[in-house]
Design brief:
Elements: H1 3-59, H2 66-86, H3 91-114
Helix pairs in contact: 1-2, 1-3
Length: 115
Amino acid sequence: MNADIVLARVARRTLVISAVLTALGFLLGGLNGAAGVIGGAALAVMSLLLLKRGTARVGSGGSASVALVLVRYALVGLAAYVMVAVVRLNPLGLLAGASAIVLAIAFEAATLARR
């Protein structure tokens, strides 16, 4: 199984799950709840893409230093801090949005296990 194909399916499922969770967040928490879900999903996707990029460099023999990985994750942490402390997005919405990618990965794992 090609990893890029699996990653593309996970990305599509994440978008669908995020859309459903955003609608639910809007119903339960208004605009701030929906924005929190979108922010959480964006953080999770950003983290996944940074992980993919870093592992691709290591796999191709490139120099991916530990410091560079830490800087990338510090940026994700900074973005999360800004969303909670500065923009004041709904923390439960952020958590729900970040879980969208986890749900998509779990669904993909279940699909692959059935094959």
